[in-house]
Amino acid sequence: MAAPHERECAVCTNDFTTPKILPCGHLLCRQCVISWMDSTPDAGCPLCRCPIVEQSDGSSSDTVDALPTDFVMEALVESARVLSKDHLCCVCEDVRADFICMQCQDMLCSACTKAHKKLSVSRSHDVESVSTVTPERLAASRPALCADHGDKQAEFFCREHRLAVCSACKANKHKVCPETNYLDDEIKSVQKSLTDLTKNLVEAEQKLEQAIGQLTSRLQEVDVSEEEDMAQVDKACDRLHKLVEDVCNKLKDKCRTQHLKIRKSLCDVKTSLSYRLGKVTLHKHIVTRAVAVSPRPALIHMTQALTDRVNSLDLSADLQGEVWVKPLSSVECCQDVVRVIEDEFLMLKQEKTESKLVSQRPLLVFHDNCGKNIRLTNGNRTAEKTEPSTFGNGVVVSRDPMVPNVLYEVRVDSVTGCYKELSLGVTRISPAHLPVTRWSADLKDSVIIMPGLVIRQRERVPLPLANKLNRLKVGSQVGVMVTSSNDLHLYINGQDQGVAAENVTQPWFAVFSAGSSVVKVTALPTSWRT
Predict the structure, then answer these.
(1) Cβ–Cβ under 8 Å, residues 353 and 346
(2) For residues 447 and 457, what is the distance between their CA atoms, to the nearest angstrom?
(3) Hey, which end of the chain has fewer CB within 10 Å, N or C?
(4) Which residues fall within 8 angstroms of residue 317, CB to CB, at 6 or more apart?
């Protein structure tokens, strides 16, 4: 039920008069929009600044008249006005009216109500207590009257002229019109269209809200990542105290700039989605309200305009591009500086012991963008097919770039059938952009080891050792490692099977794809290899 303030124009604060639906979904009086456009060049919506029209060569009145009218709100305002009048009997005039005829919309006292129900022309009318009637119910009960004869009941609807007409008009003025249907049938068709529009808008609203929620989560992850990187930078710089204070400050600035750029990008996307969500929600309210007031011939007039308007809206909630890919950490650079300074100190002391940089061992964690047929669990470390027999859609990708001389492995946890095939390799394609449905069809900047073959840059190179991927068992461990000299090695059960490809360019992401028989794999802890 529309609240009283929802029937008021936000500009003039009075009840709507010929409410116009702006492209953003806000409602304003026709005259208010005209005055606003005349007073402000290139004026947008006074509530959200959304453009009222993209281009307009005519007058402001012509432009506003081209906007769809919310006939439902217009009827609600009129019904509310009827209910707000002094409750006096329309016949007796000085007697309090306790009832109202829903069809005639006349207020009646108890005596006149009895007489109203006895008259042949009104005995079938619904007479209800004034205290229980709402503007919505009163608007919905209004009889459909002929467009040419305002006092006659409309029974048909002429699609060619978009008019509700009586049987006499159908037989005379509209007898040659190709499509003149029963009004009830037309209203049912309109109700179905409005119901479908409502469903589409609700789904779009939910998807946009979910997408905004995901962006909010990513923003939180950016904050956590920034805190972690800052802590590591501080820890590395503290080892050298004031000797590396300047380096520490520079690294912090770099880290801060990276995350500021990401945060700004995420905020821009979130703002854009919020703007679209506002338009969808406002249009959903309009359609929902129209459904609540049905049946009404006025709905037929505005249904096509609403349908065109909704179809023109962007109802998608897809996050285009990389929502957030964690940047390469600045910690490696900081550690390199520490190593250089330590080596210089050791050289001054003529110490010949080799200094080795200890880094945190990277983890193999599958990326969220792994395909609709994969469910990630155990902190995104276990990938399980939701449809075991389906081939494809079983791609899992490491979330962060690989580290040289580190083995990235998965364990086969569950299989079906005879052939336990697993393909794996490395790719330079960002996990957010990797085609998870047909990942082997676009192998640009990727090296994929498949049973019996190595595919690189669309060239198939036979590799005997890859045949060992044909019949894996439950518990088998399969992995890949890229050396510091950019050679790709295949590992099975911890044993190096040899070089699968040379000159693999950085950065790399580990890629695994389960065949039709491999159902579940788990990422294992990474390990250094020399």
Answers:
(1) yes
(2) 7
(3) C
(4) 204, 207, 208, 210, 211, 273
In terms of DSSP H, where are the helices of 4-147?
A: 30-39, 60-65, 71-84, 110-118, 135-140
Residues 90-134 have pLDDT tens digits of 888 788 888 888 777 788 888 888 888 888 777 778 888 887 787
- Three-class SS state of 308: helix
Order of all β-strands in the sheet with 107-108: 107-108, 99-101, 127-129
Task: State both tokens at 513.
Answer: 């794809």
Dist CA 180 CA 330 (whole Å): 73
Tokens of 69: 């009218």
Q: CA triplet 496, 498, 503: central angle to 5 degrees?
A: 120
The dihedral sign for the CA sequence 172, 174, 179, 182? negative
- For helices 297-312 and 71-84, the axis angle rounded to 10 degrees is 130
CA distance 374 to 87: 65
Check if the beta carbon of residue 19 is closer than 8 Å to that of residue 42.
no
Cβ(331)–Cβ(229) below 8 Å: yes
| Assigned token pair, 494 | 């911890």
Q: Does 82 score more than 50 pLDDT?
A: yes
Which tokens is 498 given? Answer: 């040899």
Whether omega for the bond prior to residue 462 falls within 30 degrees of 0, making it cis, is: no
Over residues 162-183, the pLDDT tens digits come to 788 787 788 788 777 888 788 7
Residue 353 reports pLDDT greater than 50: no
- CA gap 205, 317 in Å, rounded: 9
**Of the candidates 152, 169, 161, which has an alpha carbon nearest to the alpha carbon of residue 186?**
161
CA distance 259 to 225: 9
DSSP, residue by residue, 391-407: -SS-EEEBSS---TTEE
Bridge partner list, 157 = 164, 181
What would the two tokens of residue 106 be? 């006349």
